[in-house]
Design a protein that fits this description.
The strands form 4 sheets. Strands 7-8-6-9-10-11 form a 6-stranded mixed beta sheet. It has a 6-stranded parallel beta sheet with strand order 14-13-12-15-16-17. A 6-stranded mixed beta sheet has the order 18-19-20-21-23-22, sandwiched between helices. It folds into 5 domains: 11-70; 73-166, PAS domain (Beta-Lactamase, 2-Layer Sandwich); 176-313, Reverse transcriptase/Diguanylate cyclase domain (Alpha-Beta Plaits, 2-Layer Sandwich), CATH 3.30.70.270; 326-533, inorganic pyrophosphatase (n-terminal core); 538-657, Diaminopimelate Epimerase, Chain A, domain 1 (Roll). The chain has 25 helices and 23 strands. It is an alpha/beta fold.
């Protein structure tokens, strides 16, 4: 070791202790009490500095002795000549010995005594360094992988300079090819009833925006395929940059508008990132594009390894699709599957509402009375929020076993049975996850925006995010399967589901919504009877009033929290969320309420704020104007703070409040 004075404790501390002693003596002629206090403090400070110095040096010397026991003189010479930087450090991280390579590479040829090795491995810890794979660190512009071994009273650290290999690896990852699939979402809606020159202008505008983005920001190329679809090839580095800019191409395309109705053009992009080869990247890109379209379009979905997705955009309202060809094809295919089944089960989501139960009743009626196949609705009557509707349907068909419990369904289902899931497509939200796993043949009918945890390998995945409700979708299917199978009670169940999700034909209401409602009215739906299904008890009304009265406004969002628990608080929370939207200046509402150890959130909006994107942060879902989630194992204050953070993040992503 070098014979050089090492300041174990900074000289500044010695000077400070001495200065305190001088100040004490200066105060002696004026006040002896102050002198005693100051002198006592000075002595104690000096003692603390000396004790620290002594303990540190003893630690160093004991570590050095341990090193000498471990390393013989010949081994020490070998380590000195070793090409890799090596250092022996004490338990606290102080360097007690290092070879010439360490001094030259990491210390710049200077002294190392008294230094702490943590500054060379920051932000890694000894625990990470001691792992089998070591720890990657950077120091003075060089990249190292540090490996450690236990010594008797410290650590032996090896620094492997792999700057070149990491640079090559980084360049390989950044230059790895990425396939993107792009779709012109609303091309048909924009060019419908437009002149030929208008169609050409819109298409050219969208393509110009895409080509400009690819050329200027992606460093790749774009090729037009067919039916308004495009293939884009770029690399990882440019996709990362596009992510940081939140895919500004969506805004550029949205500036292209139809001059007749001022409707904006939108595109959806699927990105297959991190794939092992081009073929896999292309498959992932197609899956990501399907996910983006299933969530309403006007967004980018990035799929990476491990079936993980990131979403950007999705801020505009979906455009209603008026073409019913797909509905007719789905109805014919569904009829074939029903006829080939020995028994059919219809199941909604947990804590089912009027739309879930209403769409299930519609499917039950057309299968039972139209196709004459045995069918049951799987429903937990104790947890449903549509109890009055279930009672109404059960009373209307006393001779039929319309509703059965999930346990009863599990006992009777066979491999030839068909399970129809309505008003949800997530494996996490179905009424009975066990029944879904047991079913060999599954059909999904849903209108919520696509979630990553969607049901895979379904025989039919009828997903229409532009529809107002699952009841609207079922109503259209019924008309193509057997229109006369629906009577007054069934029509009222379906109409109540439509009215619930559209908030009495205010939100997410299109031409097809009114067409479906008109059909139900012709089939005998009584609007007064439907209105009664929305009635609540006096206790529910009081709870709703209490939630609304305690609400606060934050960035245009009304936030209400409950300080109590009740068995039917879900109903009051949903009603309170709807009521808060009637307040002037409120764009969205969030009602938080306790459910055991969890906190549930019911969210609504008028379309200016995408509440689905906000609640997806907590594992929830829904669609643009109505969503929900459940925060696990959290108290109310923490849940509220988490929601505020999500609002800050999501609302800041849209300039000028544009959503």
């Amino acid at each position: 070791m070098r014979k050089k004075k090492v300041w174990v404790v900074s000289p500044l501390f010695y000077l400070m202790a001495a200065a305190m002693g001088v100040m004490a003596f200066l105060s002696l002629p004026y006040n002896r009490v102050h002198f005693m206090i100051e002198m006592t403090a000075a002595v104690l400070s000096a003692a603390a500095v000396l004790v620290s110095d002594f303990l540190y040096r003893r630690n160093i010397y004991s570590t050095v002795r341990s090193v000498k026991k471990v390393l013989t003189a010949e081994e020490e010479r070998a380590f000195q000549e070793f090409a890799l930087p090596v250092a022996v450090v004490a338990a606290a991280g102080d360097i007690v010995w290092a070879n010439a390579a360490f001094v030259q590479s990491l210390c710049g040829g200077g002294a190392y005594q008294g230094e702490n090795v943590l500054k060379y491995i920051y932000p890694k810890t000894f625990r990470q360094v001691m792992s089998e794979k070591g720890a990657a660190v950077a120091h003075h512009g060089r990249e190292y992988t540090v490996y450690g071994a236990r010594a008797q009273e410290g650590y032996l650290l090896y620094f492997v300079d792999d700057t070149y290999f990491k640079a090559v690896n980084k360049e390989f990852r950044e230059k790895r090819s990425v396939v993107c699939m792009c779709a012109f979402d609303n091309r048909e809606e924009l060019i419908r009833d437009s002149a030929g020159d208008e169609e050409s202008r819109i298409t050219a505008g969208v393509e110009a925006a895409l080509r400009s983005w690819v050329a200027e920001e992606c460093g790749g190329f774009i090729r037009r395929l067919s039916n308004g679809r495009y293939l884009i090839l770029t690399d990882e580095a440019h996709i990362e940059e596009a992510k940081k800019k939140r895919f500004r191409v969506l805004d550029a395309v949205r500036e292209v508008k139809n001059t007749r109705n001022n409707m904006s053009a939108t595109v959806s992009i699927g990105v297959g990132r991190g794939a092992s080869d081009i073929a896999q990247s292309e498959r992932w890109a197609r899956q990501a594009l399907d996910m983006a379209l299933g969530r309403g379009g006007d967004q980018v979905a990035v799929r990476s390894e491990g079936d993980t997705y990131e979403f950007f955009g999705g801020l505009s309202k979906g455009v209603e699709k008026r073409d019913k060809v797909r509905t007719r094809v789905i109805a014919a295919t569904l009829t074939d599957h029903v006829k080939a089944s020995d028994r059919i089960y219809v199941m909604g989501h947990k804590n089912s509402d009027l739309d879930s139960v209403g769409s299930a009743v519609g499917m039950w009626a057309v299968i039972k009375k139209g196709l004459e196949k045995p069918v049951n609705i799987v429903l937990d009557r104790a947890r449903t929020l549509a109890g009055p509707m279930a009672d109404m349907v059960a009373d209307a068909y006393p001779e039929e076993e319309v509703f059965i419990s999930p346990l009863e369904a599990m006992q009777t289902i066979t491999d030839k049975s068909l399970l129809i899931v309505v008003d949800t497509h997530s494996v996490n939200f179905v009424e009975s996850h066990e029944l879904l796993q047991r079913a060999m043949r599954v059909v999904v009918i849903d209108h919520h925006r696509m979630m990553v945890s969607h049901i895979k390998n379904a025989l039919i995945f009828y997903h229409e995010p532009y529809a107002s409700s699952a009841s609207e979708m079922v109503t259209e299917l019924v008309q193509y399967i057997k229109s006369s199978a629906i009577d007054g009670v069934d029509a009222e169940a379906l109409l109540s589901g439509i009215m619930l999700d559209t908030k009495n034909f205010v939100l997410k209401t299109g031409v097809r919504t009114f067409e479906a409602s008109a059909y139900l009215r012709r089939r005998g739906a009584d609007t007064v009877a439907v209105k009664k299904l929305f009635s609540s008890t006096l206790d529910n009304y009081k709870q709703k009033a209490q939630l609304v009265s305690g609400a606060e406004i934050y960035k245009g969002c009304a936030i209400a929290t409950s300080t109590w628990e009740a068995a039917d608080l879900r109903v009051a929370a949903a009603q309170a969320a709807d009521e808060l939207l009637t307040i002037l200046g409120v764009r969205a509402s969030f009602v938080l309420y306790k459910v055991g150890a969890d906190v549930s959130v019911s969210a609504r909006s008028l379309g200016d704020v995408n509440v689905q994107l906000i609640l997806e942060e907590f594992g929830g879902g829904g669609h643009l104007t109505m969503a929900g989630c459940q925060m696990k194992n959290i108290n109310m204050p923490d849940a509220r703070r988490a929601l505020l953070r999500a609002l800050d993040q999501k609302l800041s992503e849209v300039s000028g409040g544009r959503e």
